[in-house]
Amino acid sequence: MIFPTDVLTVLTDQRTEIQHDQVRIPFELDRPVYEQVDKVLKEMGGRWDGRKKVRAHVFAYRIEEFMRQCLAAGEYPSRYDQGWYATPPALVTQIVDQAGIRAGDTVLEPSAGAGAMTADIASRGGVVDAVELDERRAEILRAQGDCRKVQNTDFLALDPLDTEEGYDRIVMNPPFNNGLDHILHAVGFMKDDGVLVAVMSQGLMWWSDRKTTDFREVVEEVGGEIERLPEDSFAVSGTNVRTCLLFLPGYAGSRLRTHDWLLRQPRQLDLFDVAA
Ligand SMILES: C[S@@+](CC[C@H](N)C(=O)[O-])C[C@H]1O[C@@H](n2cnc3c(N)ncnc32)[C@H](O)[C@@H]1O
Fold first, then answer.
1. Cα 8-13-19 angle, rounded to 5 deg
2. Which of 46, 183, 205, 251 is placed for a possible disulfide with 41 were both Cys, Cβ 3.0 to 4.6 Å?
3. What are the E-state strand segments in the chain?
4. Which atom of ligand 1 approaches the CA of 113 most closely?
5. How far apart are CA 19 and CA 178, in angstroms?
6. pLDDT tens-place string over residues 188-246
7. Beta strand pairing status for 127-131 and 147-151?
8. Which of 59, 76, 82, 180 to mutate to test the pocket of ligand 1 (most atoms within 8 A of CB)?
9. Residue of minimum CA distance from atom 12 in ligand 1
């Protein structure tokens, strides 16, 4: 989306403070201009915090570098683009804790957005590779420098076997319209004893189509969990979307079609040929 001229003027005004996760405009604006600025900042995922000590639009991710690049391009991604809802900081901590990331673990974030999770993972010593479809968000991920590798591509089009080794951990908050496809595809990038933690639409808990019911069976079989998240989990990102948290632990011999499982296939086929 192109910034309206008045909004661009306000956001590039030297008095406007854009720092960490906040945008603060410490000067008076005409009502119509204020409304336009407010609309754009909310579309970018911000939330107005009117408390006296804040009085700023607050984001669930680091807006500083992101905004610099958007303003330079004159364009911004709306949170409706490709199902983009940044994961709020409290939930990031919960996800990364549950994934049990240890220093040196390789971690895949296959729908990484503007990096709400990558910084936390890197701060725990995780070696993060990120994939993001949106070019602007991929650029931000590169600029933030938390990741070993950033791929600006469609994750679903990546072949797991193009990656030499599976990942120890996968953390993700994929677009909800086809989130289960993203999760099933991500399992192909995980080591046999890896762990995958994903935020998903709450529909994962009750959808009755074959793919979802089969998946719930596998989750139960491997000792995984699907936990309902509180309804306001994404409120700070400006949405009331109902979500759940999936915990999927792998182990050797499980039914999960992990990266190791995929690697074993050709050898099993060879054996089968010999036996035949
Ligand atoms: C719900 S947002 C989550 C962003 C980030 N993981 C976070 O936690 O804040 C989903 C992200 O997935 C990206 N996305 C959508 N489809 C994708 C695809 N096929 N491959 C890679 N990324 C995709 C969107 O552009 C968006 O940034």
1. 95
2. 46
3. 17-19, 22-24, 47-49, 56-58, 106-109, 127-131, 147-151, 167-172, 190-201, 225-228, 243-249
4. 27
5. 34
6. 999 999 999 999 999 999 999 999 999 999 999 999 999 999 988 877 666 778 899 99
7. parallel
8. 82
9. 111
